[in-house]
UniProtKB/TrEMBL annotation:
SUPFAM superfamilies: OsmC-like. Belongs to the OsmC/Ohr family. One of its GO terms (biological process) is response to oxidative stress. Signal peptide: none annotated. InterPro entries: KH_dom-like_a/b, OHR, OsmC/Ohr_fam, OsmC/Ohrsf. Pfam families: OsmC. This is Organic hydroperoxide resistance protein.
Amino acid sequence: MPSTPITPSDVLYTAVATAENGRDGRVATDDGRLDLVVGPPKEMGGSGTGTNPEQLFAAGYSACFQGALAVVARQEGADVSGSTVTAKVGIGRNDDGFGLLVEISAHLPALDGATARDLLEKAHQVCPYSKATRGDITVTLA
C-alpha cells in the first residue's frame, strides 16, 4: 500500500538549492553550506572536473538510507555499528530521454548475511529516497 503524501504542515525541514547553468555551472544552498562547481562527467562529454548531479544524488541517497537502516536496526535490536552504505547512481538513455539506475550496497560487519539482507529490505521500505523513487527508478540492494 503506498504511503500517504505529506502536506505542507507535515514538513519538518526544507532544503533549498539553486543551480546556475544546469549541469555545467554552479549549485549552492541558501545557507551557504554547499557551494559547488558542477559539470558533466567525461562519459557525457564534460571535462569531469566538477561534481555532477548523480554524485550529489548518490551522496544524499546513501546518507538517507544509512539513517533508515539505523532506525530499522534499533527497532529490531540489531547492531549496525561500523556499517557503511554506498549508493551507485547510473544515468543512461531510455525511451523518453534519460533515466537513473541505483544500486545500494551495505557493509554490516556485526550481522550475518540473512539478517543484513532483512534489514536492508526493511530500510528500503522506510527510506524517504527509496519511497520517492519507487516505481520510477530501478533500485537494487546488495
